[in-house]
């Protein structure tokens, strides 16, 4: 047993690496859910953000310009979803599925068009996000070196949870948003225009997914790979369902997936084939959903008796 | 698509009044002309324009690029290639269309196809016996594997309220990784540089429609010349084409002429209505997902036993047929004949995109881009939806306020 | 909790001072005036040159049958629709409302028939929505609750501001809606069919509240199609017919007969359909039927009932007391927690819907859009589903499309459904015609048992007569009918026996020939609970205590 502590803080570090993009995207999905839009386009929004972040960083030489362009790209793609689903009353599921495929296509296309690269693009000119250790706190043993040694995007992700919680449940905007999501007609009969809130929610999810993508391509690694989100956006969708659209619950769900990925990663180091450990987050996700639904079903029947 | 709305084989007791006024071919021609202005053609045109813009931004001449695309997809070997791609693409689209029509959003075609391919390959490699029999056994195994994987999603929804949309998608990943693991380790061909199984025995492979080595094929080839398009088509395309064509007919008959197909269609329109009228909607979901996944699995094994000959790691996914097929099914509104047309069209775009990449230096990804844009535009323009129900919000509005 | 004075604070509202007629016409500007309002929808002239004048502090009834144009008119007033022609004047000022919010800001408040509330929010949150009370940017729940309680107390609208709306009974929801309007300081309050969800006693209580509001100087517009309510509460009444305002009368100076004449130009009283022969053998029997709702609450509590061949049994009750669930459980759409159901001699307690239909069940559901039809399918498909399992629509396993169209054509003709043809989508039909699609399909089973749930809700008077006639003929042909309706007059006109449901239980059984509305109302409000012996019609005892 050599140095349990070292292994564990390494594990926590990879938990957080896995967690932050999923958390950001899931909070985006949560806002949409609360506004009554089932957004399954998180995957595509995140992928667009990841690409744009790499491009922005590459051309400007600044990681933060990269993050910003990731956010802009996420918002741009989500605006198509918002226009189609809200203004034109199109089916958000069809739109989101098509936009996910669009994002895969356009990023791979631009990879060739801009850098003449297929598959993975790595270049010294891409500036990655540096971690920003918080003095003293990051010296704390165990979690300290992980929790207080994140990138800027990482800190934003952890801050977003209480902020969204506060806005949703303690402010007028949050109250109106929840009302819109639950009964749009009731909201409009009182003069609240559901479309505006839904637009806002979808664009916000675009921005958050853009951030998530930037963390993925400039924080976790410094490169862009075709389809590099590989299902994380879908896991975020499930996180929202699992948490029944509560921010703190979403954090819990994201933690669960972070652990699944990190432990899978570690088992892989112990000689388990990567094909089996790679499946872990998806299986854990599904099992969690099944368990949660059962729990929920039981809870509601126990009320009866 | 008049075939779908005609009562095939019925004596047609009295021509329905609201369909009447059939004098001469004019109404049909007019309808054809009108449909050219319909949402699908307009969206396709617009998507091509947007694709052209993207091509221009990438530094190529869109007109040239599209010409290359058209020639590459519709002439000579390209046309053969288009047909070759169209077969599995239409198959996958059909698999998903069956589900969509019944109101089930199957997003897991990929995993179902992969597991079908895997199960079928295992049978083809290890079950001894006469070639044709083993082939059919492989087909059966593929249908069973894909079907059960699909049905699992449905059971998760009916028993545990986990939406099919989510579970079918998530189940694709373990299916992929499991298959990849088997191909990399236990099933890998020893001493080969390919990450793949051994090739399946010659006898188990799906033969081409008309092999050039067969007497008839040779005779025709001699008569028409080896470059003739018909010769090329019949010697390159295999019997999967026939299987998929039969599937289309089967789905068509099922939809229009069987009580179960009628029930599935109504369930897609309003599941509450169906349940109220005595349709067992839960059972229908499970069987629909079994059929949907089964067809996907069949497409998977036909790819292996037809063109790929062995199960190569990641090769089934790399075709992207599952996702392109989903777009095809949406474009076709889940109707079998339209699926065939739309599938052939998207196959042409794929093949043309590859030609573009070869000679115009534009990434072949342009085809996926254009296809996705088509669906986005249609969804925006005409509010295409996988569930053909009336929007509940519209209903609420009309009930509360519109009542006169 | 529901009853009783409005709380500890403030004085209870009544007794009221002697009512002074608030409208000495002519010497004052009308509070609200509609001039020449016209609204056309494709194919319908919904409002045709309507003039209405309402004085401050007046309770003005707006009367008319379904389809007369009441809802359209009020939607225009509330800014939901724009009139094609006409003017709205409020306190002597011409106004134009392009959205509800403009109407709200001008002091209008609307209580819709289908409540516009957010189930997961609290009563107070529903009331303050978009007019939130905040402190330093955050919602001030305590202050909101205080304000809501204050208004509620002033007018005797007892509510708990912290209760979640999804857990609140229907009668209280209406008070929440009224509170919403008062919180926004509505001077003109519009109520669309407010008594539809209330017992006669609850309605009486609502009237008390409305009178208090009018005495406070607020103006009430009260939409209804019930004559009795007009006579009981209104100062003046405007009668709409076919989109036109055919009369404006002062209630004290008119009679029920005169109003009736204006409404239809004929005798509006729906006919009764008396039985011609005695009931036969039991067709439907339920014993100890229990069920839980979607939220896990008990919605059916050991219900026993029998319906015999050739009789109509009416189920009366305020909406939400288990009637819908009773129909669903009998039809097999909801799983029973316990009990036995027998249809035409076959025990079907555990059977699915198809088996029950096979045993002899036909069912007209409450929700014709969501359950009774597929609005995006054509008439042929809508008229065939359910009949498609056996001949003549199926032969050797093959669906006979031609037969389906043929049969649809027959049913359309027989039930006088106004539709372009069997290939037309039914979602485009009017409420009455859509209902006829459902009725036609279910009648075509010739099943021994028919469950008819709200069979005439929201349909025009002609369709009501037609459906009633069909149901009566069905009974006279030996069918057993379970009629669930919120319209007491419908039940009294059609049924032979009446069961009253309250909180999931059958609390009374009455003979329709002798039952009165007030008697039914008492039981509907739970007044019959606690009585051990349920009164029976053919039983020897008939002692129902009050």
TrEMBL record, chain A:
- Cellular-component GO terms for this entry: plasma membrane
Q: How does it sit in the membrane?
A: Multi-pass membrane protein
**Keyword Cell membrane attributed:** yes
Q: Where in the cell is it found?
A: Cell membrane
Which parts of the chain span the membrane according to its record? 12-32, 44-61, 67-86, 93-115, 146-169, 234-259, 279-296
Which InterPro entries does the entry mention?
ABC_transp_permease
Assigned keywords, A-Z: Cell membrane, Membrane, Transmembrane, Transmembrane helix
Q: Name one Pfam family in it.
A: BPD_transp_2
Classify the source by domain of life. Answer: Bacteria
Question: Can you name this protein?
Answer: ABC transporter permease
Organism of this sequence: Cellulomonas fimi
> The organism's lineage?
Bacteria, Bacillati, Actinomycetota, Actinomycetes, Micrococcales
From TrEMBL, chain B:
Recorded topology in the membrane? Multi-pass membrane protein
Give the UniProt subcellular location, in the record's own words.
Cell membrane
Q: Which Pfam families does the annotation name?
A: BPD_transp_2
**Annotated GO MF terms:** transmembrane transporter activity
Q: Which residues cross the membrane?
A: 36-60, 86-104, 111-127, 133-153, 160-178, 236-254, 290-309, 315-332, 339-356, 362-382
Main localisation: membrane
Superkingdom of this protein's organism:
Bacteria
Q: Which organism is it from?
A: Cellulomonas fimi
Specify where the region named Disordered lies, as residue ranges. Answer: 1-23
Keywords, ordered alphabetically: Cell membrane, Membrane, Transmembrane, Transmembrane helix
Q: Does the keyword Cell cycle apply?
A: no
Q: Which GO terms describe its cellular component?
A: plasma membrane
InterPro entries in UniProt = ABC_transp_permease
Protein name stated in the entry? ABC transporter permease
Automatic annotation (TrEMBL), chain C:
| Annotated localization | Cell membrane
Its GO CC terms? Answer: plasma membrane
Keyword Cell wall biogenesis/degradation listed? no
Entry-linked PROSITE patterns:
ABC_TRANSPORTER_1, ABC_TRANSPORTER_2
Q: Which Pfam family is an annotated match for this chain, by its short name? A: ABC_tran
Q: How does it sit in the membrane?
A: Peripheral membrane protein
Q: Which UniProt keywords apply?
A: ATP-binding, Cell membrane, Membrane, Nucleotide-binding, Repeat, Translocase, Transport
Cite the GO molecular-function annotations of the record. ATP binding; ATP hydrolysis activity
Coarse class of the primary localization is membrane
Translocase in keyword set? yes
Q: Which residues form the ABC transporter domain?
A: 32-267, 284-528
- Could you tell me what this protein is called? ABC transporter ATP-binding protein
Lineage of the native species? Bacteria, Bacillati, Actinomycetota, Actinomycetes, Micrococcales
């Amino acid at each position: 047993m050599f140095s349990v502590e070292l292994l564990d803080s390494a594990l926590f570090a990879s938990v957080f690496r896995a967690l932050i993009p999923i958390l950001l995207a899931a909070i985006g999905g949560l806002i949409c859910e609360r506004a009554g839009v089932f957004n399954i386009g998180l995957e595509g929004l995140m992928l667009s953000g990841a690409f744009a972040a790499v491009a922005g960083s590459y051309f400007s030489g600044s990681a933060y310009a990269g993050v910003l362009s990731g956010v802009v790209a996420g918002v741009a793609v989500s605006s198509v979803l918002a226009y189609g689903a809200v203004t034109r009353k199109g089916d958000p599921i069809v739109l989101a599925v098509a936009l996910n495929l669009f994002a895969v296509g356009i990023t791979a296309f631009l990879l060739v068009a801009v850098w003449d690269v297929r598959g993975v693009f790595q270049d010294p000119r891409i500036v990655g996000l540096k971690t920003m250790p918080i003095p003293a706190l990051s010296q704390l043993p165990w979690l300290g070196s992980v929790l207080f040694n994140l990138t800027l995007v990482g800190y934003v992700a952890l801050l977003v949870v209480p902020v969204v919680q506060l806005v949703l449940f303690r402010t007028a905007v949050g109250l109106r948003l929840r009302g819109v999501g639950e009964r749009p007609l009731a909201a409009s009969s009182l003069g609240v225009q559901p479309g505006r809130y839904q637009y806002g929610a979808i664009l916000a999810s675009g921005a958050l997914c853009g951030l998530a993508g930037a963390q993925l391509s400039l924080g976790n690694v410094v490169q862009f790979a075709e389809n590099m989100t590989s299902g994380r956006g879908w896991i975020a969708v499930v996180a929202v369902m699992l948490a029944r659209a509560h921010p703190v619950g979403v954090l819990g769900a994201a933690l669960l997936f972070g652990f699944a990925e990190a432990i899978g990663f570690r088992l892989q180091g112990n000689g388990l084939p990567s094909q089996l450990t790679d499946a872990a987050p998806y299986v854990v996700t599904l099992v969690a959903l099944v368990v949660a639904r059962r729990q929920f079903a039981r809870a509601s029947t126990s009320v009866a008796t | 698509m008049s075939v779908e709305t005609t009562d095939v084989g019925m004596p047609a007791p009295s021509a329905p009044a609201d369909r009447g006024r059939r004098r001469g071919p004019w109404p049909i021609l007019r309808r054809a002309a009108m449909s050219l202005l319909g949402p699908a053609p307009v969206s396709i045109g617009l998507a091509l324009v947007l694709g052209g813009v993207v091509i221009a931004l990438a530094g190529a001449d869109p007109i040239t690029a599209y010409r290359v695309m058209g020639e590459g997809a519709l002439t000579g070997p390209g046309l053969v290639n288009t047909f070759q791609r169209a077969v599995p693409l239409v198959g996958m689209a059909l698999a998903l269309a069956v589900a969509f029509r019944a109101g089930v959003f199957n997003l897991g075609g990929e995993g179902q196809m992969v597991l079908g391919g895997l199960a079928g390959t295992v049978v083809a490699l290890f079950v001894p016996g006469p070639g044709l029999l083993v082939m059919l056994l492989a087909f059966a195994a593929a249908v069973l594997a894909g079907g059960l994987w699909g049905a699992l999603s449905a059971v998760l929804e009916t028993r545990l309220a986990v939406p099919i949309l989510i579970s079918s998608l998530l189940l694709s990943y373990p299916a992929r990784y499991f298959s990849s693991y088997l191909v990399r380790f236990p099933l890998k061909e020893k001493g080969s540089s390919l990450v793949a199984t051994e090739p399946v025995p010659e006898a188990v492979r799906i033969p081409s429609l008309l092999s050039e080595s067969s007497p008839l094929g040779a005779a025709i080839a001699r008569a028409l010349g080896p470059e003739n398009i018909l010769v090329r088509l019949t010697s390159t395309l295999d019997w999967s084409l026939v299987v998929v064509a039969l599937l289309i007919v089967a789905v068509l008959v099922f939809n229009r002429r069987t009580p179960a197909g009628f029930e599935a269609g109504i369930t897609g329109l309003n599941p509450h209505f169906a349940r109220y009228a005595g349709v067992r909607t839960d059972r229908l979901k499970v069987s629909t997902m079994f059929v949907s996944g089964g067809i996907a699995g069949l497409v998977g094994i036909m790819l292996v036993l037809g063109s790929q000959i062995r199960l190569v790691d990641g090769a089934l996914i790399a075709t992207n047929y599952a996702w392109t097929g989903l777009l095809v099914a949406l474009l076709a509104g889940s109707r079998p004949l339209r699926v065939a047309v739309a599938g052939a069209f998207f196959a042409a775009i794929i093949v043309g995109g590859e030609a573009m990449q070869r000679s115009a230096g534009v990434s072949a990804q342009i085809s996926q881009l254009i296809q996705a844009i088509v669906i986005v535009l249609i969804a925006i323009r005409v509010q295409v939806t996988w569930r053909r129900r009336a929007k509940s919000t519209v209903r609420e509005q009309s009930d509360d306020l519109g009542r006169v | 909790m529901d009853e009783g004075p409005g709380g500890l604070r403030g004085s209870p509202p009544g007794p009221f001072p002697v009512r002074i007629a608030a409208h000495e016409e002519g010497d004052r500007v009308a509070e609200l005036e509609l001039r020449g309002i016209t609204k056309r929808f494709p194919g319908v002239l919904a409002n045709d040159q309507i003039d209405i004048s309402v004085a401050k502090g007046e309770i003005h009834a707006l009367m008319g049958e379904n389809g007369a144009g009441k809802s359209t008119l009020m939607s225009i007033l509330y800014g939901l629709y724009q009139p094609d022609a006409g003017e709205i004047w409020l306190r002597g000022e011409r106004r134009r409302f392009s959205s509800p919010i403009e109407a709200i800001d001008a002091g209008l408040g609307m209580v819709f028939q289908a409540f516009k509330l957010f189930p997961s929010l609290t009563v107070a949150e529903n009331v303050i929505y978009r007019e939130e009370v905040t402190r330093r940017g955050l919602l001030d729940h305590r202050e909101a609750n205080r304000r809501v309680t204050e208004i509620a107390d002033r007018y005797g609208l007892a509510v708990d501001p912290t209760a979640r709306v999804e857990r609140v009974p229907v009668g209280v929801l209406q008070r929440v809606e009224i509170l919403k309007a008062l919180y926004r300081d509505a001077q003109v309050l519009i109520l669309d069919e407010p008594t539809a969800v209330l017992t006669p006693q609850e309605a009486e209580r609502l009237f008390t509240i409305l009178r208090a509001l009018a005495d406070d100087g607020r103006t009430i517009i009260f939409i209804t199609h019930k004559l009795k309510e007009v006579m009981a509460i209104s100062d003046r009444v405007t009668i709409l017919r076919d989109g036109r305002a055919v009369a404006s009368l002062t209630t004290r100076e008119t009679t029920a007969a005169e109003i009736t004449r204006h409404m239809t130009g004929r005798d509006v009283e729906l006919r009764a359909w008396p039985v011609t022969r005695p009931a036969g053998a039991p067709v439907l029997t339920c014993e100890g039927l229990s069920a839980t709702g979607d939220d896990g609450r008990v919605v059916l509590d050991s219900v026993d009932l029998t319906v015999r061949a050739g009789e109509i049994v009416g189920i009366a009750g305020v909406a939400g007391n288990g009637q819908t669930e009773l129909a669903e459980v009998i039809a097999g759409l909801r799983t029973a927690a316990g009990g036995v159901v027998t249809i035409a001699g076959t025990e079907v307690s555990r059977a699915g819907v198809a088996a029950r239909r096979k045993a002899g069940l036909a069912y007209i559901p409450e929700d014709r859009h969501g359950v009774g039809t597929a609005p995006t399918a054509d008439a042929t498909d809508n008229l065939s589903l359910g009949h498609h399992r056996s001949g003549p629509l199926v032969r050797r396993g093959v669906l006979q499309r031609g037969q389906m169209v043929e049969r649809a054509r027959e049913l359309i003709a027989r039930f006088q459904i106004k539709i372009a043809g069997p290939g037309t989508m039914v979602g485009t039909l009017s409420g009455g015609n859509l209902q006829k699609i459902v009725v036609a399909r279910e009648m075509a089973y010739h099943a021994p048992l028919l469950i008819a749930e709200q069979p005439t809700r929201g349909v025009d008077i002609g369709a009501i007569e037609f459906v009633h006639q069909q149901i009566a003929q069905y009974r006279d042909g030996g069918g057993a009918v379970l009629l669930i309706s919120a319209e007491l007059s419908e039940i009294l006109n059609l049924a032979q026996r009446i069961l009253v449901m309250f909180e999931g239980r059958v609390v009374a059984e009455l003979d329709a020939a002798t039952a009165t509305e007030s008697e039914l109302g008492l039981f509907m409000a739970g007044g019959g609970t606690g009585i051990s012996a349920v009164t029976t019609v053919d039983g020897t005892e008939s002692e129902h205590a009050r």
